[in-house]
Design a protein that fits this description.
Helices cover 28% and strands 26% of the residues. The chain has 17 helices and 43 strands. The chain is elongated.
């Protein structure tokens, strides 16, 4: 088809056309839909809803009107978009859990914090909230610019006068093209105080604004942890706030405890939160919850999370913070339109721009009021002339053939303006009474004073700012309230695994082939002396349990190998197994070398100065090192001590530098010396001689004397005895020592030595995996060179391989028994 001659084709590059079209679309979204104006804090749809409701005379003291009527008004006159967008916006402006100071007062179902949807707009009603008056005040006094609506048939305000600092007190969120805003709500009283402070001290430092604006104040309350992210946001426009639900622990009459949640983080769906908690409890990801219910009512929120009797409530609470929306991070982005350009702003810049807007509004309002006052004063001047010459004026009007002639005559005779002459013609006869004449005089005098006042305001910026201050103080008095969100100065760091695991004592067992596991201490019931015990691990013919010790789940465990290397592990990282399970290979947890075997352990709560590690080798060498030297082991281990080829590390103890050390040998000898005899050495040193050994003898254990207790020794054949520590005199290191147990065929050689007191309990484990737990009170104190009494009845071919000490705090409670040794 031939083209008409009038048609023209302009070739363009498709890349340029796409770029320009997309930029136009982007700016339309940014300016016309997604971002608020920094001056009135509103997006176009919010502004249009408020204005339309004002035009419908839906003030806070007027009857409600169907929201369908309001939505129709907004759509038909100002906002050519879908009705869902308008109604959803109106609904949010009603919700007291979405806005800190709701701008619309609703009647009906407008949704809930549980995520329930609002009723259809044909069922709900609304009117402006009282605080919305502060957004629209003086809009009829030419205080803001106006522009045509979408079809050019009406005018609409391009922004609102906004006495209320809406952008900060109610916040805003929106996603534009390539940018987003997320401004949290704040407390009105705090924002007003900050604005007044900026007016009084224009050079006020940004850092000092935190003395007034403490931080976000969310409508749902909650607790903000830490202020560093808030300070960063107020300074740069970007930051983060960590918000936690407000929860406390309540104890019922039955003795059970429950976590009661009364406030949740902003924009968290309560129903979804409860479902998530229930799911975690059902899947055993949070194991301490026994019951969950929602007791919320019109008086407030109340979520009750009952915990099991043996659960650590603080751990359960930490798990809830970690795995649910009871803790959220609010990303702050202070992005708003400044002269129709998106800008990321600091808190100070937002306050300054709002004050600039208020100054412009006050000046425009004052000019409008001055013009109105001068116009009225001008009319009153004409009325005064008319009253003074009323007879002549009446005569002129009577003689005139029409109104226009009368007006012209009055203007010429009394030098009046057209407005004055028309006012005289419109004057009623009642204005001729003495009282009315007096009212005109008084009104004129008042107007003269008002005009002088308004002119003085326009001539003085200080008076304009004082007016703004007075209006802000009035705003705070009418609508200010207490802060809902508590702010804690301490930062909330990311949860470590310890925060999510209850602290309790565990029995750690290690087998000959290197399998490790942990079980609660209460797994083993207490028995009397001479019992058979219970099976603590199911042993294979080629494997048996070689090591057993007690440690808290939150403690560090330093594992030392016979070759003098150190490996670091947390007790909670050790898999928990059943009473008959073998456990996991140690090599999978700490990665020890092929030619190494675990020799000793040291439970450590924290690495700090003033603590030392005392190490003993099989050939009688001792070494003392600073604990801090071992605070950062690597995955492959670090050198703890230099061990000769014909020697091996057999024991390590944690001391404070003031203790005595006792070394015991396989043949029943023991030597006691003060640890100061061994000066601190570096990790890679060998050490010094601790005991002089006879041929064929070797060291089987070491004790660091910490209590006024006694020494327990146990032999291979299940015999044991206690002796007073005082029976072992202090000598110099390097001696042969004294007899601590008389070794015979009945007793067998000595396998362990422990420092104990009467309140302690013993856990004895044999090569075939039998375990017995018995109180030390049943083992009497004897002489140093005696054979002792039977502690455990052994099956034929079985022998004792290790003994651990348990310090009892309560009926079934335990405390870590200190250091431990894995026997050779």
């Amino acid at each position: 088809m031939a083209l008409e001659q009038s048609e023209k084709i302009h070739p363009v590059m498709i890349e340029e056309e796409l770029k320009n079209s997309y930029l136009d679309y982007s700016m339309s979204v940014i300016v016309g839909r997604a971002l608020p104006d920094v001056r009135d804090g509103l997006k176009p749809v919010h502004r249009r809803i408020l204005f339309a409701m004002s035009e419908l005379s839906l003030a806070y003291n007027r009857p409600y009107k169907k929201t369908a009527r309001i939505v129709g008004e907004v759509l038909g006159k100002y906002h050519p978009h879908g009705e869902t967008a308008v109604y959803d916006t109106l609904v949010r402006m009603v919700q007291d859990f979405s806005l800190r100071y709701p701008l619309v007062d609703g009647q009906g179902n407008f949704g809930s914090v549980d995520g329930d949807p609002p009723a259809a707009m044909r069922y709900t009603e609304a009117r402006l909230a009282r605080v919305a008056d502060e957004m629209l005040r003086d809009i009829d006094k030419e205080t803001v610019a106006w522009g045509p609506n979408f079809d050019g048939t009406l005018k609409e305000p391009l922004l609102l006068p906004a006495t209320l600092p809406q952008l900060l007190v109610n916040g805003s969120s929106g996603i534009a093209v390539g940018m987003a805003t997320n401004i949290p709500p704040h407390n009105l009283g705090e924002v007003v105080d900050a604005l007044v402070a900026v007016i009084d001290e224009p050079a006020l430092e940004e850092e000092k604004l935190l003395n007034y604006v403490k931080g976000p104040d969310f409508p749902t309350g909650g607790t903000i942890h830490g202020v560093s992210g808030i300070r960063e946001a107020y300074r740069t426009g970007r930051g983060r706030a960590v918000i936690r639900a407000k929860a406390q622990v309540e104890t019922f009459k039955s003795g059970k405890e429950a976590i009661v949640v009364t406030e949740i983080p902003f924009e968290v769906n309560k129903s979804t939160l409860i479902e998530k908690i229930a799911e975690l409890a059902r899947n055993k990801k949070i194991d301490g919850i026994s019951d969950l219910r929602d007791e919320s009512d019109r008086d407030g929120m109340r979520i009750v999370i009952e915990t099991k009797r043996d659960a650590d409530t603080s751990v359960v609470l930490n798990q809830l913070y970690k795995h649910t929306a009871m803790q959220t991070t609010y990303g702050i982005i202070l992005l708003a339109l400044v002269k129709n350009q998106p800008r990321i702003l600091s808190l100070r810049r937002i306050l300054d721009l709002f004050l600039e807007h208020r100054q412009e509004v006050v000046v425009r309002r004052t000019k409008f009021e001055l013009a109105e006052a001068e116009r009225r004063a001008h009319i009153l001047e004409g009325l005064k002339i008319a009253i003074d010459h009323i007879d002549e004026i009446v005569a002129i009007i009577k003689k005139a053939k029409d109104v226009d002639a009368a007006r012209e005559t009055l203007m010429k005779r009394f030098k009046l303006s057209e407005v004055q002459a028309q006012a005289i013609l419109d004057m009623t006869l009642k204005r001729l009474t003495g009282l009315e004449r007096q009212k005109i005089e008084e009104e004129y005098l008042d107007l003269i004073k008002l005009i002088a006042k308004l002119k003085s305001i326009l001539a003085s910026k200080a008076k304009v700012l004082q007016l703004i201050k007075d209006e802000l103080f009035e705003l705070k008095k009418k609508y200010g309230d207490e802060r809902r969100t508590e702010i804690l100065m301490s930062e909330t760091e990311d949860f470590s695994i310890e925060d999510l695991i209850a602290e309790e004592d565990m029995v750690i067992t290690i087998s000959h082939q290197g399998y490790i596991k942990r079980l609660p201490v209460t797994t083993y019931r207490r028995q009397g002396r001479g019992g058979k015990g219970v099976t603590g691990v199911k042993s294979k013919e080629d494997d048996w349990v070689e090591g057993l010790f007690i440690a808290s789940t939150h403690e560090y465990i330093l594992f030392f190998t016979d070759r003098g290397r150190c490996y670091w592990l947390k007790v909670y990282e050790i898999p928990e197994g059943g009473r008959l399970s073998r456990g996991k290979p140690v090599v999978q947890l700490v990665g020890i070398g092929k030619d190494e075997r675990m020799a000793a352990y040291v439970p450590v709560k924290e690495f700090k100065e003033g603590l030392y590690l005392i190490m003993a080798s099989r050939q009688g060498t001792v070494k003392k090192s600073d604990l801090l030297d071992y605070s950062h082991p690597k995955r492959g281990g670090i050198i703890a001590a230099k061990i000769r080829e014909d020697d091996s590390l057999i024991d390590v103890r944690l001391t404070d530098g003031t203790q005595d050390v006792i070394l015991a040998t396989h043949e029943g000898q023991a030597v006691r010396f003060h640890e100061s005899d061994a000066r601190p050495m570096g990790r890679v040193s060998t050490g010094v001689r601790g005991v002089r050994l006879e041929k064929g003898d070797y060291v089987i254990g070491m004790v660091d004397v910490k209590r006024e207790g006694s020494l327990l020794v146990v032999t291979e054949n299940g015999m044991g005895k206690r002796s007073e520590i005082a029976d072992y005199r202090v000598t110099r290191r390097g001696g042969k020592g004294v007899i601590t147990v008389r070794v015979t065929d009945k007793t067998g050689k000595m396998v362990t030595i422990k420092e104990v007191v009467d309140s302690d309990e013993l856990m004895i484990i044999t090569q075939q995996g039998q375990v017995i737990r018995l109180p030390l009170s049943g083992v009497r104190v004897m002489g140093r060179a005696t054979q002792g009494v039977r502690l455990i009845n052994l099956d034929e071919g079985d022998r004792v391989v290790d003994v651990a000490r348990v310090v009892v705090k309560e009926e079934e409670g335990t405390e870590n028994g200190g250091n431990g040794t894995i026997p050779a």
